[in-house]
Amino acid sequence: MQQTQPHVIWINGAFGSGKTTAAKLLAQKVPGAVIVDPEEIGALLRPVLQPVVPVHDFQEWPAWRKLVASTLNAVLRELPEDSPMIIVVPQTVTVEDYWSEITSDLDPSVRLTPVVLNIDLVEHRRRAEEDTEEPDALRWRLNNFPVSQQSAWLRRAFTDIDVSSLTQEQTVAAIRAVAFPPDPEAV
Length: 187
Hints:
about 190 residues; Rossmann fold; 5-stranded parallel β-sheet; 5 strands
C-alpha cells in the first residue's frame, strides 16, 4: 500500500474574503479531506488565558501558535495512511513571525500549500455586508481589511488568488489548481 504524503492547504486572506466557504467546498470536492479551523483553538484558549494574559487577538498567544501546529500534526497522524491525509485550514494570519512559528513546528514530511485569497475593497464590503452566517462580524471584517492588504510578505509566502470576480466554485477550482497541479509526467 502506497503511503500518501500528508498535505496541509492553508487558505489565508482578509476576514470575509471567503476562506471558510472555500474550505468547506474544497473539503467536499476532495474525498477524505478534513477541515481544521484554528479559530476553535483560539476559542478554547480565550476563557483560560484572556483573564490572566489579555490580548487583542488570540494569535498573540504563543500557546495558540504552538497548538495550531501541534493540532495539524496530531490530526495528520490520526488519519488513516491509505486516506488522502489532507487538511484544509481557513485562517487569516497577517504577522509573518506567527506564520514562521506555525510552519516551523509542522512535521517536516507535510506538504504545505499556502494560498491567499485577495479581494478588492468594493467586493469585500459587498460580501461582508451580505453575510448572513456571521452578521455581527461586519465591523471586524471592514476594520481589519487594510491589515491583510498591507502585508507584502503574504504575496511572497503564499500563492495569490484574486477572488474579486470569482464565484465560490471558481475560487475552489483556483485553489485546487495550486494544491493539485497536473503531473507533467502523466501527460
